[in-house]
Amino acid sequence: MGADKKPVIQVRNLHKVYSIGKNKVHALNGVSLDIYEGEFCAIVGTSGSGKSTMLNMLAGLEKPTKGQVVINGEHIETMNENQLVKFRRDHVGFIFQSFNLLQTMTAQENVALPLVFRGEDKKVRLKKAGDLLDLVGLPEHKKHKPNEMSGGQQQRVGVARALVVDPEIIFADEPTGNLDSNTSRDIMNMMQKVVREQKKTLVMVTHDNHLASFADRIFHIIDGKIVKIEDNRQGENEE
Amino acid sequence: MRFIDLLRMSVSNLWRRKLRTFLTVLGVIIGTASIVVMISLGLGLSKSTMEQIEQSGGLTTITVREGGGVSYSSGSVAVAVDSSSSDENSGKITDETAEKIMAIPHVEIASPVLSLYPILKCGAYEGNISVRAMTTEALKAMDIPLAEGASLPLDEENLQFLYGNQIITNFYNAKTNEYYWDTGVLPDIDLTNDPVFFIMDSDAYWNAKYGGTDENGNPVAQPKKYMYESTGLVAGTAEEYNEFSWEAYCNIEALKTQLKRIFKNSKIPNQPTRSNGKPYKEWYYEEMYVKVDEMENVTEVQQQISDMGYYAYSNAEWVEQMEGQYAMVQAVLGGIGAVSLFVAAIGIANTMMMSIYERTKEIGIMKVLGCSLGRIRDLFLMEAGFIGLSGGVVGLILSYGISALINTLLSESYYSSISYIPLWLSGVALVFAVLIGMLAGLMPALRAMRLSALSALRNE
Q1: How many domains does chain B have?
Q2: In whole angstroms, what is the distance from residue A40 CA to residue A53 CA?
Q3: How many structural domains comprise chain A?
Q4: What is the ipTM of this complex?
Q5: Which residues of A touch B371 (CB under 8 A)?
Q6: Residue A119: helix, strand or coil by DSSP?
Q7: What is the least distance, in Å, from the CA of B20 to any CA of chain A?
Q8: Quick one: which of A19, A29, A106, B434 is 20 to 30 A from B43 by CA?
């Protein structure tokens, strides 16, 4: 399994060292992994395990101390900030724990925001944003501001925003961290469904093993090292 | 990212915090208005001075005096004729000079000025006056303001006089020897309609009166009196000065004919004589009035006349000097105004700084979502520029208001306008306000650009 697929993300021997005062903290200690096209992967670990650092580095938000991150054949660890911005704009969607919607904009405008940076025409981008809000189940809330919506609704907007640029990869950082369990399940189901339908690669970071079980593959990370890789699909197939 | 979206976003960001934006803009409004109003005062001052000079035809006229190549230090004081000078060719002004000067390109009029200082008698009053005789064209060209019913003495046959409006104060009561300045009462005479008698040879008059003798020892006979027509007065009361107030004007041809008839072969007053006391055949003039077609040709023509050995004087140098002085005044006034705009710029910088702290998270989100660094910088620069622009526009409107107010309230002086805002000043003020805004916003904008996306996101 996986050998016939092309890896979208290749991580090789990734190290990240933080200097806190005189102490050096190894947040990541030689991580290597491959993530394939169309996969839903979860990176699971406790707080302080290095899972968020891992995600930041995959998304080019942080520079690794050592090692390689290759996405779509491009080495993102060598890019400068402008190249990274352009890379994210063209290939990557983000879903945040705290939603990170702009409070001054409506749901539709928030979803359309990444397209603004791409220079798309206003009509086109609002149309796309509207379609995606329909898809994530918020056809009634297009004109609502974030503070007029529940957490679950806001995160749906967040998912729509991640999808709007039609990215190859979506990164999700504790996407349900601020939601109750029922809403979390709804969001996870929705994300799973959308990702499968649209054949996106989704990389999710969470501390919750239950949520991780929605994923196809689960990377367990402890103290900056991958200790176990679970493959849910094989399990499903076998059953 | 499209420019229109950038524009939309920056305007909506400013609109979000209306009060703060308004207060910051208010600073720019006051700054712009103070600069513009200050400079407009300086400009108004120089403009009304220029207008005054222009009204008197002073910008295109050159006064030529006999010079012998020597420049006199001041042109406004009549230089006495050195009648004993033996060098006949050096710098004397004759009719030939007028022809030569007429031949210079750009010269429109070159009129000799024949000066005469006769004594006038009118009723019980006597007065010493100064007469300037000029050509018909020159009289027309000088734009002499005329009182009602008056006309220029253009008749080249019959001698006529136009009297300056303040000449009457030069008359004194021959019996009491009291001047207008002593009594404060204007002489009860009308120079236009009363018979006025001219004594052309004032030396002879005084000699006759006080028992003087001529070179042969004979008592001097009382000179004859002549009566001439008047064409009226220069406009204005006896208290109102203009540059034609103190002289009487007449036609030079008529005066020459008349003088020749009166003095025949003897010496004409105010004309030089040969060393043997005989008069010359030609006329000599103290002064010549030259009019040039355009202001920018004045200096050139003036130089050529100087090169011919005359002393030439025009307002050009003076105007240049004045312009330099007014530029200084404007710079000082503008500098005072600039202080308040500088304070406004600090306000803009402060506002933008605050805005960045408030919007740190937003900036982070934008970066993560793919907004390029340059565009983030542009966004903040544009917001700052907008503050500058709106402050500039409103400040400019305010300036026009203040300027109009100053001009209506203080219009009683002879300045045409105290505050004057030319179009270029409006343009410069706007551009300046925007530039100041952007300059003030530059540091905050660069700071926003350099914010780390990650730490911005963590900022809750």
Answers
A1: 2
A2: 19
A3: 1
A4: 0.88
A5: 85, 89, 117
A6: coil
A7: 17
A8: B434
